[in-house]
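Why this split exists: single-chain examples teach little about how molecules sit against one another. For that reason, every record in the complexes split bundles all components of an assembly together and asks for one structure covering all of them. Below is a record exactly as it appears in the raw files.
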Amino acid sequence: MVASPSHRPPRPPRPEPPALLYAHAARRARALAARLRGKRPLFICTIAQTDTARIPGLSAAGATPELRELTPAADAEALYYGSARCLHGVPANPLGPPGPAIITIAALRLARIPVLVVDAGTRVRPQAPAIRLGEVPGACLTGGQAVPDAAGLYQRGYLLGAQLAGCADYLVLGESVPGGTTTALAVLLALGLDAAGRVSSSMAANAHALKEATARQGLAHLDPAAVARDPLRAVAAVGDPMQAAVAGLALGACGRVPVLLAGGTQMAAVLALVHALRRAEGRPLDPRRVAIATTRWVLHDPTADLAGLVAQLGPYAVLGSGLSFAASRHAPLRRYEDFLVKEGVGAGGAAVAASLRVGASAERLRRTVERVYRALPRANGSP
Amino acid sequence: MVASPSHRPPRPPRPEPPALLYAHAARRARALAARLRGKRPLFICTIAQTDTARIPGLSAAGATPELRELTPAADAEALYYGSARCLHGVPANPLGPPGPAIITIAALRLARIPVLVVDAGTRVRPQAPAIRLGEVPGACLTGGQAVPDAAGLYQRGYLLGAQLAGCADYLVLGESVPGGTTTALAVLLALGLDAAGRVSSSMAANAHALKEATARQGLAHLDPAAVARDPLRAVAAVGDPMQAAVAGLALGACGRVPVLLAGGTQMAAVLALVHALRRAEGRPLDPRRVAIATTRWVLHDPTADLAGLVAQLGPYAVLGSGLSFAASRHAPLRRYEDFLVKEGVGAGGAAVAASLRVGASAERLRRTVERVYRALPRANGSP
């Protein structure tokens, strides 16, 4: 039989991105994924605010500086209600794209993963249930007294983590902290990592120089010997409340269940912290207990180096979600592929957990995120 | 062979109390116990304070009126730490016996049941992680405006309950609310139950007359037709914040997992509330989804009638723990058998859950409670 002239061979299907990526300690990452497949996760988003985020030019986690004040509360609300209460839709990037909360919401819904919110210290409280671990936001890290109650936050986080470990087969710990990559950089440097130029950003053009200058200002107040004895001093001086709380959650839980730190270089700082805390106690952390799970955009971020940070700590697994918006018909979502938004609200870890729980493909995840995006109220990210 | 004269036959073993009691809808209660056996529960203690508790003569939940202010916070702390932070040991009865938190602590430890604390509205905040659902304590019910935000507490509780249902095979919902049997009486009366003389008390001599006079003063402000349309009006007028929050938790969760309301007649008020809420919505609550689990002391309380209250609602199961201190060598614990302390902090429900989870006998529970009791700091219940 001869094909008619009008017949064209079908276009070869666009190669689908894999659901899971293995970016560091790949064999260990694959083994962890195999161990968690089908298991029941619990997702916990820890929110916090700092005065560090008020330094102009550091953060794009919010459409305007005024709206940035609402970002952690709005993200927490969006996780419960599907969109925020204190603003329309979800927190957005100044250039328009919706924030990463839509990914987290979609992934948790798709796989029916339960979510809890931890408030480690906020000015604007979410209109949603939150586990209060701290009462005050962080100060500006330049003063060298960013989180005076770091030890208390850690201890309460530890207690809570020990209980939450009884509620699931593993924990996925995300965050929403504007300005958090700067406090991450400062804590990584305080803990002795070669971190300059390696942390990610909520902006496409990563403000490395400003971040480093800001971090160095805070670090001038810090005695490295004191940090070696007590790594929480790094957070107390130049960190943010989320770091202490999530470090506590992770170490409180990881004796009983595996823990996925859901984020990019902010979670590298938390990993560095738990690694240092356990080393200071003389019982090194087993790298099979804690891993990082993040997005493709963080893993491919040309302005940052997550794997290079983790490699300085040890063979901790870094997993990624293959989720891509390249094939999306929604222009604001396609901007993710320009690295305009990369991570936040545990988006990558939630996507990884959804793929592990129900076998969600990257395409199915994308379609679910698109549905969440279309259902958002108009005037996205405005009050 | 002839027994030597010094031989005495061994004393017959003291008959051990059964681990579980079935006090109402016994067949349904047995079926529920069979369904939950071995399953993984999550225990949630909701704390709240009210000005109603400040009326002299109503509550013995605390060694003195001053210490009673600390009771909900101290109970929450004791669940996390084994004893309170804001006072020594656990809240105690004015006549000496340690409060029921020791039972809850023992049961949860024995069966490794995870615990979370919900704060529905307190003046004294616990030094422990708590999920904040409300910011203000309840007013005195005599004014008829006891919980202005009852609807908000209910809604946030519902949201949270829907998430927590994904964290366990069933939920056990306890409370610590001084003065709570008076707000329970008022809400039961507001919802149309024949409750006078039927609620329990933290005191051996139940102050029925004072409770009823107090409740009636609040009820004078209430329009029964409004309550029929919206049962939360009963809580808003004459209840306490815990009732609205736990009703939300229960209805948010019970579509997915069974819910045990862990308490005595205070939980009868919550049951009456969720029953009425669902009836007002035109979709009656399935009595297999929600049950009450309490202590032997509540079930045998000569001054109250839990089963008589539940019978007015429908065939809801009431389970009890067989835990008894009759055989204890600790005199303060034996005072429970005089009905000096009966229930609180979800003690009965936690004990039931421990028996269901690990098959703990009443005797093993007693021995575990005794160990918790002996480990308490001296000067029990003092600041």
